[in-house]
Specification:
Elements (H helix, E strand, L loop, with lengths): L3 E9 L4 E9 L6 H13 L21 E5 L2 E4 L4 E4 L14 H11 L10 H13 L5 E5 L2 H16 L3 E5 L16 H5 L10 H4 L2 E4 L4 H10 L4 E6 L15 H11 L3 E5 L11 H6 L5 E4 L10 E5 L1 H4 L18 H15 L3 H22 L5 E5 L2 E5 L8 H4 L4 H13 L2 E2 L8 E2 L6 H18 L2
Helix pairs in contact: 2-11, 3-11, 7-8, 12-15, 14-15
The structure holds pyridoxal-5'-phosphate (PLP).
Pyridoxal-5'-phosphate (PLP) binds next to helix 4.
């Protein structure tokens, strides 16, 4: 149950004595059932979760157990409602459980859940992806972003005949061995520099550079002549918190990879169909050789994909020798949710709306922090946003780590009390959806204002 306290506040402006009422939410959420279920879960599953970022390790407390989601909202099993800015970590860009996606799925399920054989829906989603994403001439569907990145790496090596790959500190490309080096997000949140079980011989081929640092990439190329298969990156980082590419960075990588006979790969698992219909590559006008996709293209069901030039993609089995397969890949339910989601996103004005809502949100958050004299830097591109509790700019993962983690933890807890569900880590981006209206955004900003007020010293 939520209690409200009205506090009469007197403060000096430059010239005036200002009087105001502040509404403070005082209680702790009633999450008894969540606590019970999570406590049982910890005996059943490692850490009580199916994926580490769902735990609240870096913000304190226990995760909330969800009962259902709809539009911009999530309800926990104790009946509390939250405005959700995680959106299932990206897929819910049209809003949770969009009625058209649900209806399409209900119709599709009547025909069966998995064929293990070609289906016409795969052609349809493939055509949509190829039409939308500039670099993609041919696509292979898989079941997750991790699978897509893992497969693209094998393809990069096979096509170039080279073993090394360059990735950036704080970029996450799923949990395949070779990518678990300076992998941001969950790995950073849990303070694991690397993961046990990843052979050193594997990661020896993974070279890393700070994001937004072209000189460091140049140096790696000159130190490893004819050995680097390619450069893979998040064209806008979401897994080290929200970090944008500086002007010239993506263009510079395009030139460097071409000069060195290497491939440029954009991991658009997070940015694909979120930043614009054609992804970050369309937004920034830089076309990579290969692209990985996930999240939004599955519309909430498990889908990943990788695609690129026909010449490269034709090396994939069975048209070429590079083996990659999947029992449930391209299954009709996942394809249906993806198709319907892309149809909704393709409508006129979608991305303008997403951008307007998200800009309103981040501007409000920054203003709220400033009102309370809390250092903040942040921004958004379309429906992806983020902020760090430190002075900006933040251009790479090292700078992201200057964020005040303790303060973020307190902020996270205060926001939860006020019914706002933010990613439980400062090293994650936030996501809005077409279902977030100005009303929810303004309520969220008000909650930020109150929360900043509650946590400031
Ligand atoms: C940029 C990026 N690549 C790859 C992945 C891995 O995707 P999945 O969790 O579907 O395996 C993620 C997941 O968050 C991601 O953000």
């Amino acid at each position: 149950m939520t209690k409200f306290l009205l506090i009469y506040k007197l403060e000096h402006d430059k010239f005036f004595l200002k009087a105001s009422f502040i509404l403070i939410v005082t209680d702790i959420l009633n999450c008894n059932q969540s606590e019970e279920v999570f406590s049982a879960a910890q005996e059943l599953m490692p850490g009580g979760v199916s994926s580490p970022v769902r735990a609240f390790k870096s913000v304190g407390g226990n995760p909330i157990v969800f009962d259902r989601v709809k539009g911009p909202f999530a309800w926990d099993i104790d009946g509390n409602r939250y405005i959700d800015y995680i959106g299932s970590w990206g897929p819910a860009i049209c809003g949770h459980a969009h009625p058209e996606v649900i209806t399409a799925l209900q119709e599709a399920i009547e025909k069966g859940t998995s064929f293990g054989a070609p289906c016409v829906l795969e052609n349809k989603l493939a055509e949509m992806v190829i039409d939308a994403v500039p670099s993609v001439e041919m696509v292979r569907f898989v079941n997750s972003g991790t699978e897509a990145c893992m497969a693209v790496l094998r393809l990069m090596r096979a096509f170039t005949g080279r073993d090394k790959v360059i990735k950036f500190d704080g970029c996450y490309h799923g949990h395949a061995d070779m990518f678990l080096v300076k992998a941001g997000s969950g790995v950073a949140t849990l303070g694991l520099p690397d993961s046990p079980g990843v052979p050193r011989t594997t990661t020896a081929n993974t070279l890393t550079a700070p994001y937004n640092d072209l000189e460091a990439v140049k140096k790696l190329f000159s130190e490893n002549p004819d050995a680097i298969s390619g450069v893979i990156l998040e064209p806008i980082v979401g897994n080290a918190g929200f970090i944008t590419p500086e002007p010239g960075f993506l263009e510079g990588l395009r030139e460097l990879t071409t000069e060195n006979g290497s491939l440029l790969v954009f991991d658009e698992v997070m940015t694909g169909f979120r930043i614009s219909y054609g992804g970050a590559q369309e937004k920034f006008g830089v076309t990579p050789d290969l692209t990985t996709l996930g999240k939004v293209i599955g519309g909430g069901l498990p889908v990943g994909a990788y695609g690129g030039k026909k010449e490269i993609m034709s090396m994939i089995s069975p048209s070429g020798p590079v083996y990659q397969a999947g029992t449930l890949s391209g299954n009709p339910l996942a394809m249906t949710a993806g198709i319907k989601t892309l149809e909704l996103l393709k409508q006129e004005g979608t991305y303008e709306k997403l951008d307007a809502i998200t800009s309103r949100l981040i501007e409000g958050i920054i203003q709220a922090a400033e009102n309370n004299s809390i250092a903040i830097t942040g921004g958004n591109v379309s429906a992806m946003f983020g902020f760090f509790l430190c002075n900006g700019p933040v251009r790479n993962f090292d700078e992201a780590k200057t964020n005040d983690a303790e303060l973020f933890g307190k902020l996270h807890r205060e926001m939860l009390k006020r019914g706002i569900y933010l990613a439980p880590s400062p090293f994650e981006a936030g996501f809005t959806s077409l279902a977030h209206s100005e009303e929810e955004i303004d309520k969220t900003i008000e909650a930020f204002d109150q929360s900043f007020n509650a946590i400031k010293n």
